[in-house]
What we know:
The chain is an alpha/beta fold. The protein is about 45% helix and about 20% strand. The chain has helices at about 30-35, 50-60, 80-95, 110-120, 135-140, 180-195, 200-210, 215-235, 250-260, 270-285, 290-305, 320-330, 360-365, and strands spanning about 5-10, 15-20, 40-45, 65-75, 100-105, 125-130, 145-150, 155-160, 165-170, 340-345, 350-355. The strands form four sheets. The chain has a four-stranded parallel sheet, sandwiched between helices. It has a three-stranded mixed sheet with strand order 1-2-9, with helices on one face. Helix 10 (about 270-285) packs antiparallel against helix 11 (about 290-305). The longest helix has 21 residues, at about 215-235. It starts with a strand and ends in a 6-residue tail after the last helix. About 50% of the residues are buried.
Amino acid sequence: MSPVEKIIVGLEERSYPIFIGPDLLNVADKYLVDYISDRQVIVICDTVTGPIYQGSITKTITSVCARLDNLRVPAGEASKSFSAYNALCDEILNIGIDRKTVLIALGGGVLGDLVGFVAASLLRGIDFIQIPTSLLAQVDSSVGGKTGINAKAGKNLIGAFHQPKLVLVDTSVLITLPKRELLAGYAEIIKYGLLGDAYFFSWLEKNWFNVLSLKQEEIIFAVRRSCEMKADIIAKDEMETGMRAMLNLGHTFAHAFEAVGQYNGDLLHGEAVAAGLGLAFDFSVAKKICKPEDALRVHAHLIEVGLPDDYSSLPAGKASASTLIQHMKKDKKAIAGNLTFILANKIGGACVMPNISENELTTFFMAKGVNHV
């Protein structure tokens, strides 16, 4: 059995561990006991993860906690909504809770974001634990305390910073994921290499097949390195006032693509991120801050593994440049209507680029073959 990796997200009194390894769900009580002993616990899954994992976690932790309840929410991006948030809050309050109640989010990124926001809201904040079951959630959304839901105006515009007490990453559960979901998660792994670790990106170029084949040594290394990088950034900038924005490399493009798709499931977040990474490097080249050969490497790797590398390759509807820009203006990094992008000086070197004009962005999109209107 592979050794269990432990990473600490250093946030003083809000610090918490991330445990990474195979078959951890079957011994979850060992890792969760200090957080749930003699407390009420509510395990929340979605309608896909629940039938697969809810029985295992229930069996493992029942003897540890004072009371255990199970809830499920509909699977899919639509659950990051006001209606799903209200329904889940009502269900939990109908069960009856107190300030020592612990919520466990057992599922992918959508579920973790929703449950985290519910935990941040109920009784003005109760504890929650993340047990991510998708690759994307394991390497990105389960770590860092960003919780929230989508609005009609855009993605993740309603939420709160609320750190989990613990993140338990069982790499064995990834075997149940469809290839498309694995690839979507892998896009976020690529992001970490591109934003701050050129060696890691080179390692991915050589080892991507074993990562996506879920070879334990490679998948654990890839998950661990991603979590290490995110934990280090969060420890320095928890509330995203500075360098944490680097984690949004490719995401200003990606969130606009998702908004156009209306979160209907035709476009996965990781697919949008992959296309956004390709475009972020192309835009960096257009602004003459990055070498063309770096962008070519990014595109080549995305294409090799089977991810979209451009807006034109997305498996979703297309939109005009003006429509995309209107969505981008609602991005959380925008200030006074001015667009801010995370771009790259090189592979492994992201940078913040404020005050991008609409004209500049329109010219870029049109050069990429996107119609203006």
